[in-house]
Task: structure prediction
Amino acid sequence: MNEKKHGNAPGADTPGTPDTDTPGTDIPGASSSWSSKPEVDGAQATMPGLGLRGTLLFLWRQLTSMQTALILLMLLAVAAVPGSLYPQRSVNPSLTDQFLEENGKWGEFLDALGFFEVFSSPWFSAIYLLLFLSLIGCIVPRVGVHLRQLRAKPPRTPSRLTRFVGHTRIELPGADADAVLEQAHRALRRSRYRTVVREETSSRSVSAERGLLRETGNLAFHIALVGVLVCIAGGQMTSYRGQVTVIEGSGFSNSLTQYDSFESGAWFDEQDMPPFRFTLEDFRATYVQPGESGSVGEPRSFEADVAVTTPGDPEFSQTVQVNKPLHIDGASMYLLGNGYAPEVTVTDPEGTVVAEGPIITVPLGDVGYTSQLVIKAPDAQPEQTAVVGYFLPTGTIDEQGPRSLYPDSLDPQLALTVHQGDLGLDSGIPQNAYEVDVSTLTPVAGEDGNPVLIRLYPGQEFELPDGTTVSFDGLRRFAAFDIAHNPFERWVLVSALVAVGGLILSLFVPRRRVWVRVRSTADGALFEVAGLARSDDPSLEADVHALASKLSTAQDGPLAGNGTSDDERLPRAAKDSSEGSAQ
Result:
């Protein structure tokens, strides 16, 4: 073995030269390191630090990668699941409070995590904002690249077309090379390719490209997705929604004090509410009757006739139905629910009318529309009075108790009891107008000491032993409406449609390149055709062969020379190749 010579004298201590006695070193003077660079003063090589700028740039590139965007999109979908599993305070506060009471510590734990306010929670907002930033970071550079591609000419023809899809070489005896090239140019232009004719050393070629709409659609999809996120956020900030219950013959004026419940975004301005009012003239409901197809009592239609008045316009009437709302500039009114409002009059023992008029009842959810009725009379003397019970549209009272057999008012009845005592209205604690705690009240009893059970038909009156009277004077219907406005609603729809259109383009428009090279020969012309698919394009090879066949037959009759396809001459690896370099 030859010993490596150094410039220093033998035996001299040379910096960087390892000790020959180092364990594991068999060759004198050989380095224990695989590196070709000697160590300096025994210091080991270290990686340079990223620094603050480098770290921030690294994090930004990770955030704006497509993989991160897909992960965030999946996380956003997963984070929205609790919003459909658990009651939300913004939608139904009473149901949320009930859930918390029934689940104790578990409910408190979920509340601390924000599971009852999912869509306004910090963690959901964080995912939303990160996805927003990630999409913008993905889109902006790609838009610049795509715009440059749109302005650029198709890439030059590769020197070796044998590497590409459908490569075909055909000799045309007696053909003119320029004519063949012009024919190829026209054929590709008619097929909606972007083309350019290039002069080469010993030949001429046509470079053609098609399918840039694929990337356009892809970008449109992502831009529209950002638009959807922006419009949803803008709608949450500027929209308003309120619910109101209106009895037949009564009206509603669009002001905050008239709503039963109301919620709005942080940027909502009360002055933007349109000044309109309407009167519920009639409400009609039809149900499946015995002998008709369907389940007996199943709803068939709900219709509310309303008379609407707006400033400066004449009054007009419209029928509001389910999924057929009333649209006014600045608001849309949807029909949500309905029920019965029996007209009841309550007189205390002193003969004073303490409650009068139609009373909105709450349907209990059964097919027959059995509804709960609550009347509170805090001004009754000598004690405050509460009348509770049921309204039965088609009523019966049997061993199952009071219930309705059919939702239409074929045999309307009231089944009531009267209670007296402190209603708790002066405690300062808000109470539900449709509920009363009868456990703190005393029922009015009869001579036998049992609570008096009242059953009334329309036009009847009942007098209790203490002189309190209850009368059933008539029956009306009520309708519940949802009045809302979201100024970004139409833009959400437009963005969603653009996203769908862009997705269709990105999935079904193939991007491809085709090249035709023609050179003159002693006998005529020889041309080559090949293509390159930039995405899945199973029809490219057939189209390349069709173009070659068209060019060969466009001359004076069918090919009369040794026209051969490279599929017969190329090795299998070249035949199976569907992609290659465009350089």
